[in-house]
Write a structure and sequence with these properties.
With about 210 residues, the chain is an all-alpha fold. It has two domains: about 110 residues, Serine Threonine Protein Phosphatase 5, Tetratricopeptide repeat; about 90 residues, Tetratricopeptide repeat domain (Serine Threonine Protein Phosphatase 5, Tetratricopeptide repeat, Alpha Horseshoe), CATH 1.25.40.10. The protein is about 80% helix and about 0% strand. It is built from twelve helices and no strands. Helix 10 packs parallel to helix 12 and helix 11 packs antiparallel against helix 12. The termini are far apart.
Length: about 210
């Protein structure tokens, strides 16, 4: 009985979420359409105003749109505020968290960026972007073992992906796994012939072996 009750609750929440996303008025659609054109022209302030004119605090779509436009307009604190409202409205939203990374990174708050990616991985453990970007953050902090674990996940899922392969090669090199690093750098060269980063990694390995 408890399982049935929980299942019904989940279905009700899901249905409510879908309906809230679909309940966009013609006014909202028009405002968004005009904001896209203004964004394309680089007029972010006017694009923001178009959406602000129809602002509804409980609208996920409006808040996430304003989060993105505010970021483009250089208002990073405003962007963060809108993205956080989006997350409050849709607590499991990965897209809102990925958006939140942009202003946080622009403000140089790497610890916040790290925390956001960790939140995403709690929701979606195999998310490519979160795994790859967080691995990059760890690499920059010289946390190579932590970076290794994340890259191991996505390289197994995307074995012929250049970005993951080249970073995984460098992480293995930093950890002293030269045999594995050499294989990964050669794979990177297969994906991207004459790749500078892969050639540099192989050069370091060759010098080490001399």
């Amino acid at each position: 009985m408890g399982i049935l009750r929980n299942t019904i609750l989940v279905l009700v929440i899901t249905a409510t979420t879908v309906l809230s996303l679909q309940a966009q008025t013609n006014e909202t659609i028009t405002a968004f359409s005009e904001s896209y054109s203004l964004e394309k022209d680089g007029d972010y302030a006017k694009a923001i105003q178009k959406v602000r004119n129809i602002y509804v605090e409980t609208s996920y779509a409006i808040n996430i749109r304003l989060g993105w436009l505010s970021y483009l307009n250089g208002d990073f604190m405003g962007s963060i505020s809108y993205y956080k409202k989006s997350i409050d409205l849709m607590p499991y939203s990965v897209e809102a968290r990925l958006g939140l990374v942009y202003p946080a990174y622009a403000m140089g708050n790497i610890d916040q960026v790290q925390a956001i990616y960790l939140e995403i991985l709690e929701i979606d453990p195999k998310n490519y972007t979160a795994n790859y970007k967080l691995a990059g953050v760890y690499y920059g902090k010289e946390m190579y073992k932590e970076s290794f674990q994340l890259l191991q996940t996505i390289v197994n899922l995307y074995p012929f992906n250049y970005n993951a392969t080249i970073l995984y090669g460098w992480v293995n090199l930093k950890l002293g796994n030269t045999k594995e690093a050499k294989i990964l750098f050669n794979t990177a060269l297969t994906i991207s012939p004459n790749d500078i980063s892969a050639l540099e990694g192989l050069s370091i390995i060759n010098q080490t072996n001399d």
